[in-house]
């Protein structure tokens, strides 16, 4: 561990010691044993630097040198001070869980009674009659061994969403998880666990937003298990302010015949890192990863994906797109592993970047590591500007330059946004995209 990292690690170790003193009897539980093991590992490996290949193009120094304080209690902020209707995605009716600085807010949430579905905060689930099943999966897929930020999240693990969908259950309405940060240099660390049973179907929407324009840090971890022949659709929308830092790590485990679609859309944040790892751990799995990032100003948005084909006869499809303007920077590192026994794998990966300014930059690194011989695997990456001929064609039809740019940019992005199955969410994403493009072209202040 380097000396710079040591200084910042010590700050979190001291915060952890203070946190331990508030736990009373909980400090002797297996959960706290998991926390201590994670903090010990964090002390060993330290925070990553640009010498680490996985972080070559993204420096975390601006994040770790800030005086962020892990939020260990629900902040005292009244529901009246939170303009919830303005924050919510319209027309997502049904179950809604709201978290403030990583802690469940009952007053802001709406959980209709259900005899088919177990939905609660993780803190509640850990103390419930179902806690044994929760402990069976918690921490099993999210590894603290090599990832410092997963270790940091695990070290202060307290609350987040816990969703258990029983076998043979179809949930018709989306489950909506809203994560809010208050600012004031807070560190929010929600931990989410989603278990989807055999032959079941569910759609989950995760939205991350802030209540101020202050600097804060969100460090989220989610573990998702798709049982045999389960169908899971996950959409994550990150729209935090442009002073905020955001690191999100999603770990997905797929059983036989399961289908998982994970959509990631990033609009906000000063430094953003989206990690998603999915393991196709039985035959007949299918995985689809879609991503869209829109960077403006000096934003830095990094998307790291791993699709691990561990077993034969599985398919994966991946499409990640970035739109970069101003002096923003983008990173894409997509890895596809095909294990020795994973014959008959079919994997496709595409990364495309649209540059709206000469000062925007993109670093892309699609990777295939194939250890089987009977496979179909393709990958590709493109970086470019708006098509000059297409712009000329639209302008020759009396369409203004800004409108022509918007039309082409929206068409580029819609290839991702339209893949979402929820109509109201597609409309919301397209509206947000339109607002951002207007600001880029100077139409609004």
Written account of the structure:
With 445 residues, the chain is an alpha/beta fold. The strands form 2 sheets. Strands 1, 4, 5, 7, 8, 10, 12, 14, 16, 18 and 20 form an 11-stranded mixed sheet that branches. The chain folds into 2 domains: 3-282, no CATH class; 387-445, no CATH class. The chain has helices at 3-20, 30-45, 61-64, 84-87, 122-125, 131-137, 148-155, 388-396, 401-417, 423-440, and strands at residues 69-70, 96-100, 103-104, 118-121, 161-165, 175-181, 186-188, 191-196, 201-210, 217-226, 231-238, 245-254, 259-266, 271-280, 286-295, 300-309, 315-324, 329-338, 346-355, 361-370, 376-384. It has 10 helices and 21 strands.
Number of helical stretches of at least 4 residues: 10
Q: Provide the β-strand percentage band.
A: 35-45%
> What characteristic shape results from the CA principal axes?
globular
Distance between the termini: 45 Å
Number of spatially distinct domains: 2
Give the mean pLDDT.
93
Provide the gyration radius in Å. 21 Å
Oligomeric state of this protein = single chain
Q: Report the strand count.
A: 21
Could you describe the largest sheet, including whether it forms a barrel?
11 strands, mixed
Structural category is alpha/beta
Concise synopsis of the structure shown:
The chain has 445 residues and is α/β, with parallel strands linked by helices.
Write the layout of secondary structure elements.
Blueprint: H1 3-20, H2 30-45, H3 61-64, E1 69-70, H4 84-87, E2 96-100, E3 103-104, E4 118-121, H5 122-125, H6 131-137, H7 148-155, E5 161-165, E6 175-181, E7 186-188, E8 191-196, E9 201-210, E10 217-226, E11 231-238, E12 245-254, E13 259-266, E14 271-280, E15 286-295, E16 300-309, E17 315-324, E18 329-338, E19 346-355, E20 361-370, E21 376-384, H8 388-396, H9 401-417, H10 423-440
Parallel strand pairs: 1-7, 2-6, 5-8, 6-9, 7-10, 8-10, 9-11, 10-12, 11-13, 12-14, 13-15, 14-16, 15-17, 16-18, 17-19, 18-20, 19-21
Antiparallel strand pairs: 2-3, 4-5
Helix pairs in contact: 2-7, 8-9, 9-10
